[in-house]
Specification:
Length: 241
């Protein structure tokens, strides 16, 4: 039986990129199709107020990345916070990527803020600090595509930091077997990252832009992280075999 995953899509990509990349929800569907655990997905754009009908349950809820701040005051972010806290209180499994990683840290007692390090762009490598049974295939380090200026600067008290580097000390964390979050974007592909970088050249400046663009030639392990995420959701069930 396939896992059921609710994708809470927290942004709309630039209009000129929709035809090729569709949106973050579709990117995740395409990513997870490359890993071996069967899963079915439904996408709800929470910026537009879309949520599952009351009483509908999923095996996990995934909060995507976004250009918005996790600590922002927009009404849709307030609604999302309430929904996510309700899911956490109900014991549901939660997955967070970038904005979602930061939002969950903030909601569960950590700290998220503008990073003194500035923008993180391109491909960065992280050291895996803790190993778990669901981290299959195993890796001691992995690289992910990133674009962020906010970071989790203090993890929730009961969180375990799973991956880090000097630029982003809390690049991934879990809370027991319920919450798993990543700062990087396993769903991104190099072509989409190039388009994002081209669209923000004035924002990050020429030197950082050139460095980030050059890094896109490096391999990244988004598919490994995707398998870890699905094994995290499936642990203890027949799907994890």
């Amino acid at each position: 039986m396939a896992l059921s995953i609710c994708i809470l899509e927290t942004d709309n990509i630039r209009p000129e990129l929709v035809e090729q990349y569709h949106g973050y929800g579709r990117m995740f569907q395409q990513l997870f199709a490359q890993q071996p655990i069967a899963a079915e997905f439904e996408v709800f754009n929470v910026v537009q107020g879309q949520y599952p009908e009351e009483g509908r349950r999923f095996d996990a809820y995934l909060i995507t990345g976004s250009k918005y701040d996790s600590f922002g005051s927009e009404p849709w972010i307030q609604t999302l916070r309430e929904y996510v806290l309700a899911r956490y209180a109900a014991g549901d499994k939660l997955l967070g990527i970038c904005f979602g990683h930061q939002l969950l840290a903030l909601l569960l007692g950590g700290q998220t803020e503008r990073a003194a390090q500035g923008w993180g762009l391109g491909v960065q490598q992280y050291q895996v600090r803790e190993q778990r049974d669901w981290m299959q295939p195993p890796a001691e380090a992995l690289s992910l595509l990133i674009v962020h200026q906010d970071q989790v600067t203090r993890a929730p008290a009961d969180a375990t930091v799973l991956a880090s580097n000097d630029f982003c000390p809390i690049a991934a964390y879990c809370i027991g077997d319920q919450v798993l979050c990543w700062q990087g974007h396993p769903e991104f592909v190099a072509g989409y990252s190039r388009a994002v970088l081209d669209g923000g050249l004035e924002r990050w400046g020429g030197s950082l832009y050139q460095q980030a663009m050059a890094s896109l030639e490096q391999p990244h392990q988004g598919t490994v992280v995707a398998e870890w995420m699905m094994r995290f959701v499936a642990q203890g069930s027949a799907q994890a075999a």
